[in-house]
Amino acid sequence: KMAAAAGAAAAAGLWSEVNRCGQNGDFARALKSVNKILQINKDDVTALQCKVVCLIQNGNFKEALAVINTHTKVLTSDVIAFEKAYCEYRLNRIESALKTIQSASQQTDKLKELYGQVLYRLERYDDCLAAYRDLIRNSQDEYEEERKTNLSAVVAAQSTWEKVVPEDLGLREATYELCYNSACALIGQGKLNEAMKKLQKAEELCRQSLSEDSDVTEEDIEAELAIIHGQMAYIMQLQGRTEDALQLYNQIIKLKPTDVGLLAVIANNIITINKDQNVFDSKKKVKLTNAEGVEHKLSKKQLQAIEFNKALLAMYTNQADQCRKLSASLQSQSPEHLLPVLIQAAQLCREKQHAKAVGLLQDFADQHPANAAEIKLTMAQLKIAQGSVTKACMILRSIEELQHKPGMVSALVTMYSHEEDIDSAIEVFTQAIQWYQQYQARTNHGCCVFQPKSPVHLSLIREAANFKLKHGRKKEAISDLEELWKQNPKDVHTLAQLISAYSLVDPEKAKVLSKHLPSSDTMSLKVDVDALENSHGATYVRKKAGKLTGDNQQKEQGQGEVKKKKKKKKGKLPKNYDPKVTPDPERWLPMRERSYYRGRKKGKKKDQVGKGTQGSTTTGSSELDASRTASSPPTSPRPGSGAAVSATSNVIPPRHQKPAGAPATKKKQQQKKKKGAKGGW
């Protein structure tokens, strides 16, 4: 009895110690006291609960969960459901946490709060939104602001990942977290300018709230602002301001934030800016996306985008095996997603295996008809790159949902025209026009009231008529033009085209139709010709004939002094200019650029010094040859002298001529240059 009484007294003292440590937040010391209590009574439920709480407070979630699983008979789900679910949540066992919460017999407020967090991590946003609305409606405590922040985060996630138009929650954006979440929702809607203003407001509120705490340094504020700045940079990137975005991204990385999710997103965005350039920087940034715990911080779509970019980077860095491995893994995770198969096809094209790439795309289109349109467009692009335009047209025409689209019709007609297959091009027009006729018949539901054709339908008919006229199919064009004229009898342009077409086929019919043209009086335009000619930007102004009268001359002088026109001096002709000789057409070109220039013979006299027998002169033999006189023709005619001058003439073009008479000395030439009398013309 005395031992039992001593044990009870010791336990009471230990419980007092546990209570005191718990109030002081010293859970490590409290844990020691709890362990001593459990030595006295190992199945004490309260002591086991306290041990689990102490371990959770110290961050030992695995050990806390082990204690719960070891004492399942004592710690039933009703007693310890919240602690068990919380440990599973913190250990990223989200599915297990959900099962633990749902199996609890009583849903306490704590479990409901955790339930909302679990649903958010599982990306079940509709259920999460309902859970937080219920919490806000039925709770009144100091955590109301946090619940509203979580609610706005759910709405932002719906807008971003599910493209759901967010509803107005009527939340007062008094904190920077609420402003930030509102900005994210606006980004999901594509309202980038409004989102940027919200982020600027969030930055201002964040600085104000943190600066009130004297213990918070500027580095702490910048670290807290990193996520806001990251979102600002993302908006800049979406707006095409890639340089500004890149600069802001790098500033955030230099701060070395502890949030691995933020670093991974920023690194991924930098890789998308670099694309196939600056590959070395991209390979360094990829390491940030592989940090431990990233998979628990980002959504599934974010993780998927990072994996896609890894595969593309492997392709750009010529890591073919790595690219195939990553894209195959992505395809196994998302069999219906387009990007993995497109990446594989792109890699095959880089390896010059175009036929294999087309086959791969065809297999995917057959297995997933819902995504066949985009795949077939890629197949057509590959066929065009190979020069198989006709096969590309066949692939494009097999996309039934796009056959009638104006863009597709235009592309097919252009391609068939390039291949000079006019019949196929006209067939494309005909099928598209028939589709719109059938569509109109379906929308009318058998109504007898005349319904006008749609603008797209009329535009296709007009383009078909113009195409047929251009390629000589006048009779076919006439039927299209008549259809257009029936739709709008007041369209003079269509009537003129119709008359022009009939004039080549049936002149009498053209005369009859010409009576429908408006008269010349109604067609005349009331235009002031003088005002039009004198208007700003007129390229031609009619000169007024006749001299100014005395009054007009005085008016002109009164408005301002008339500038005197400088008389142009007549160019001087060379002294030896001969009007009978055709000038050299290349006289304006520098000597080196003329067709007959053969280059200067450098050092001719120097090369001849010391050559030949002793006592010989350096005079060329040509000077002693009596047959080579001034009257003998040159060895090759000068350009420009063949038409107007006979073959035996030795006249040099004026630009090349020297003054007639004896050759001038060097001194005289220098004197002439000083006088400034320049020849040439």
UniProtKB/TrEMBL annotation:
Main location: cytoplasm
Region (Disordered): 542-681
Residues in the signal sequence: none
One Pfam family, short name: SRP72
Bias kind Basic residues: ranges: 563-573, 665-681
Segments forming a coiled coil: 94-149
MF terms in GO: 7S RNA binding; ribosome binding
Biased composition annotated in UniProt, kind: Low complexity: 610-644
TPR repeats: 226-259
Compartments where found: Cytoplasm; Endoplasmic reticulum
GO CC, any one term: endoplasmic reticulum
Keywords for the protein's UniProt record, in alphabetical order: Coiled coil, Cytoplasm, Endoplasmic reticulum, Repeat, Ribonucleoprotein, Signal recognition particle, TPR repeat
One GO-annotated biological process of the protein: SRP-dependent cotranslational protein targeting to membrane
Residue stretches of biased makeup (Basic and acidic residues): 575-596
Segments forming domain Signal recognition particle SRP72 subunit RNA-binding: 543-599
InterPro entries with a match to the protein in the record: Signal_recog_part_SRP72_RNA-bd, SRP72, SRP72_TPR-like, TPR-like_helical_dom_sf, TPR_rpt
Gene3D superfamilies in the cross-refs: Tetratricopeptide repeat domain
Protein family according to the UniProt entry: Belongs to the SRP72 family.
Name of the molecule in the record: Signal recognition particle subunit SRP72
Name of encoding gene: Srp72
